[in-house]
Design brief:
Blueprint (H helix, E strand, L loop, with lengths): L27 E2 L17 E6 L1 H4 L12 H9 L3 E2 L3 E2 L7 E4 L5 H7 L1 H4 L5 E5 L18 H18 L4 E6 L9 H19 L5 E5 L16 H15 L44 H11 L32
Parallel strand pairs: 1-8, 2-3, 2-5, 2-6, 6-7, 7-8
Antiparallel strand pairs: 4-5
InterPro entries: Ester_Hydrolysis_Enzymes (IPR051532), GDSL (IPR001087), SGNH_hydro_sf (IPR036514)
GO molecular function: phosphatidylcholine lysophospholipase activity
Amino acid sequence: MEESKVTPEPLLDTSVAQCPINPSGNIVLKYKEIESGEIVKKGTELRILPVSGSITVGYLSDRKGGDGNGYRGQLKKDFLVVFAGTESSGTMAGGYYAAWSGKTIQYISDHVDSSLKQSPNIIFLAAGTNDMNPNHGISKEGNDPKGAADRLGKLIDKIVKACPDSTILVAMIINTCDERQSPATKEFQKFIPGVVKSRHDDGKHVLAVDFTTFKTSDLQDCIHPTNDGYKLMGDYWYSFIHQIPASWIKKPVGPDPNGGDGTNGGIDKYIPAPDWEKSPIQVTSKKTVAGAAKYTTGGEDKYVTCNGNPWYKGTGKIAQGGVGKNGD
C-alpha cells in the first residue's frame, strides 16, 4: 500500500522583514507638489492627529523669527484642518498633537490613548528617530532598527484597533547628518514599508509615506528642520494626504476635540460647562405675551415705545486662542 504524504501547512511568519524602498503596490507615497487649497474630499472635515516626537512638537521652530508651530502651521495655511491630540505648542489656536520631545516609540504607545479617543480620521505616525539615537539615555529600549520596527508595528496595531475608520500615514523618517545615528536610521527606514505592507495586505487603511527624500540641508541640527524646512515638511504631509484613496477618508465622529479656538472668551476644553439649573428665559404662549402687553398699557391695545440711550464701554481686549494651559 502506497504511503500518503501530507504537506504541512506553512507557519505564519510574524517577524518584520526588510522591504525595498520601492516595494510593489502603492503602499509607499512619494512627495509631489500640490497647489495650496486643493480640496481632499468634498464635504468631509479633516481631523488630523499627529503622533510623533519633537519634530511634530515643532522644536526650534520658535527661533530666528519662527512662530513655534512647526509643520502644523504650514498645513493650517494650506487648507482647513482640525488637529486632535492632548498636547499643544506654538502660537496658533488649536495646534494639538500627541507628540513628546525626546521620547521613543514605546513611550508614545504608552501615552497616546487619550488622543486616540478624539476620533481622528487621519493619523500621522512619524516615530523612530529617538529610537535610533546612539545615546541609550534617549533610546531607552535600545537602538536596534529591527527591534524599533517591531515596536512600530505594535503601535500601528494599537492605533488601528482604537481608530478602525482612520487612515494611518506611517513616515519613513527623515535622514540625519549625524554620522553616529545615520547608519541605524537608514536601516530602520528599510523596515517600514514591510511593517506597513503586512497591515495593508490585511485590509487595514495604512500607508507608508516617504520622507527619505527630505534633504539634510533643510535641518538645523542634523535632526530638526529649519523654519523653511518645517514649511516644506508641511507640504510633504499635504501632498501625502491628497494621495489617500478618497473612500478611505471617513467623516470624523463627534465634536471637534479642541472645542473652538477660545475667541470671545470661550472656556478651556477641560472645564465642564456651567449648570444654570432652570433657565431664566422661559418659552410662553402668544396669548400670555399679549396679556402682559395689555397690562402694561392700562388695558388698551396699543404699542408702547421706550426711549433709551444705549451705550457701550470697552473694558479690555477679547481673549484670543493660545492663552490657556493647552494653548486653546
